[in-house]
Structure formats: structure tokens, C-alpha cells
Design a protein that fits this description.
By secondary structure, the chain is an alpha/beta fold. The protein is built from 14 helices and seven strands. Helix 9 packs across helix 10. It is elongated and about 75 Å long.
Length: 282
């Protein structure tokens, strides 16, 4: 099978193949012995190790069993699935405009019961007002040169965010204080956005924590990420939306979220930071 046309996917496949090869070597067996234990041809082992043929979930389980490394199978299976769909190129999604980007996560939002969101750059999409969202998405569309469908994208984001009012779902937000200060819109729009944030803090299923500039930190500020239940993480970069599903990756981001949350203030102290940010707009 030829290399995958996406360099990201091919690289992920090669990394997975390398991990499987190391597992075999650590077990001290040859490719021929592995094939015998797995009940398939030696050429199949070679194709998998050289990233010529992507293994199935069953292949990975059998490989790990043959190498007495069953505990590594869950991470490897998740990595195998990610190699095909974890990195969604923004340029592909945005080819038809930003509305498609908003709608692409709709099913995931409906399926998730517990959301944990850390942001260090902008007000989280869940908490944005239409005015703030319009200013932000307009900036994104201009930067990326995508079709101008900002109005439709904002409407799609607002529909997607209706999950926030579903009391059966729980949301925990941790925001850097800088998020309250960045000027991505007019002072009037930002004041309305900060007022909306104060209102959201009254919802019973929503917890908002703010990390003050002056806080003694246990961990450094990190790129924005969202954890969906205990199964998936979205971590955006400038060119891709990375969906991480390996148990070890989810555990890592969960630990990061917990450490960041330790430095956040809540309640009256958080409201005071927002009030100060509002006052600075005048």
C-alpha cells in the first residue's frame, strides 16, 4: 500500500509502526516468531512494522499478546485510530466556510456529559456572546482567507452552545485572567461579553475559575484544550484541530487541567477580576 497522501497521517502511521517494532524487540523475538505466535505471514509483520499496511485493532491486540505487552494495547489502538482522523486540517474544514467548522463538533457536544475547558487566549466558544463570536470569527476568516459566512457561523455556534443550558451536562472552565483583557472586539461588545460571563457563573451546572496574573503557579500557562468526558481531548493548533484519544494522552491533559484548576479563584474573587476587567474598558 502506498504512503498516505497526508504527511500527518503517514507520520502517525510510522510512529505507530515504530512502537510496535520496539515492543517486538523488547520481547526478544524475531519477525518470524511474531508471525508464528500471531498466526499470520511473516510478510504481514514486515508490512506493519514498515508502515506499509495499517494494522487493525485486532492485529494490535494480537501483536501485544504475542509480545506479553497486553497493557500497551489500549494506547496503541487509540493511536492507530488517530492516525486516520485525529488531525483535521483547518483548510479542509474551512474550504466551505466557518459554519462547517462549528457544525463538525455538534454530535460530540451532544454525546458528552462532562466538559472540562482550559483557555489561555479567548473567551471559550461555549460562553461567547453573538457579538464577541462575530468579532472573533471575522478575524479568523480574514486571517485564513475563508469564505465570508461569519453570520451563519455565529448562528451555528449559538445553536451548538445550547448544550450549556442542559442541566444533565456539567461544565468546568478554567480561564487565564488574560482572556478577560485581550481586546478582540469593541469596548462595548467586550463589556457585554464580560457581563454574560458573570451571568453564566450563576448556572448550577457551570463552574468557572480564573487564574489571576498574580497567582503563584504550580504549572505554566498552556495552549487551550477541551476534555470531553474521560475519552477525548481537543487541542487546537494554528493549522489543525487535534483530537486525542489515547488513554495516556487524555490522562496527561486531565492532570494538567487539575493542576491549572488549583491556581484558579472562584466565586467573589473571580467576579472581582471580571469587574476589574470591565472597569478597564472605560
Amino acid at each position: 500500500m502506498p504512503s498516505h497522501p497526508s504527511s500527518r497521517v503517514q507520520k502517525a502511521r510510522e510512529e505507530l509502526a515504530g512502537r510496535l517494532r520496539e515492543i517486538r524487540k523488547d520481547a526478544g523475538i524475531s519477525g518470524r516468531e511474531l508471525a508464528v505466535r500471531c498466526g499470520w505471514s511473516e510478510s504481514k509483520s514486515s508490512r506493519i512494522e514498515n508502515a506499509k499496511t495499517p494494522p487493525s485493532d485486532a492485529d494490535i491486540k494480537e501483536w501485544c499478546r504475542a509480545c506479553a505487552a497486553d497493557d500497551q494495547a489500549p494506547d496503541l489502538i487509540a493511536a492507530n485510530r488517530q492516525s486516520a482522523d485525529a488531525h483535521v486540517q483547518w483548510r479542509r474544514l474551512q474550504r466551505s466556510g466557518l459554519r462547517r467548522v462549528q457544525e463538525s463538533t455538534g454530535d460530540l457536544y451532544q454525546q458528552t456529559k462532562i466538559f472540562r475547558v482550559y483557555v489561555s487566549d479567548v473567551i471559550p466558544g461555549f460562553l461567547q456572546t453573538p457579538g464577541y463570536a462575530a468579532a472573533l470569527l471575522s478575524s479568523i476568516a480574514d486571517f485564513r482567507g475563508t469564505p465570508d459566512d461569519v453570520s451563519d457561523a455565529v448562528a451555528a455556534r449559538m445553536r451548538r452552545n445550547e448544550v450549556l443550558s442542559n442541566g444533565a451536562r456539567r461544565f468546568s472552565f478554567v480561564l487565564e485572567e488574560s482572556v478577560l483583557r485581550y481586546r478582540l472586539c469593541s469596548a462595548e461588545t467586550m463589556a457585554a461579553q464580560l457581563g454574560h460571563l458573570l451571568g453564566v457563573m450563576d448556572l448550577q451546572n457551570v463552574a468557572v475559575g480564573l487564574i489571576p496574573f498574580s497567582a503563584q503557579r504550580a504549572v505554566w500557562p498552556m495552549p487551550t484544550f477541551t476534555i470531553f468526558d474521560d475519552t477525548k481531548v481537543h487541542a487546537d493548533t494554528l493549522d489543525a484541530a487535534a483530537t486525542l484519544t489515547q488513554p495516556s494522552q487524555v490522562e496527561l491533559y486531565t492532570r494538567a487541567f487539575e493542576r491549572l484548576a488549583q491556581g484558579a479563584v472562584r466565586g467573589a474573587a473571580a467576579r472581582s477580576l471580571i469587574a476589574d476587567a470591565v472597569a478597564s474598558l472605560t
